[in-house]
Amino acid sequence: MKLTFGIVIRDGNIKRWIRNVLALTGSALILIGLKYDIYLMALLGAVVGAIGMYASQAAAVGVKPFESWQSKRNREDDGNCK
Fold first, then answer.
1. Which of 54, 60, 65, 82 shows the greatest Cβ crowding within 10 Å of its Cβ?
2. d(CA 2, CA 6)
3. Are 13 and 51 in contact (CB under 8 A)?
4. Which of these, 32, 55, 59, 58, lies nearest to 45 by C-alpha position?
């Protein structure tokens, strides 16, 4: 699990190339689904694309949704010490 986590996640965010792949794959699924009237595929594409795009927004703002709880605790402890 730790190995997979390191391949996909870096600095608490999904890696850039994975975010791009998710967004492009989602867009492609939407277009294919709408072209051939497969609305379930279009819905799946919207979900996949949204994950990629929201992950990109989180990285741009600096939010780290996948930061480990240990590093969060260490950061909080460092702020409380004087």
1. 54
2. 6
3. no
4. 32
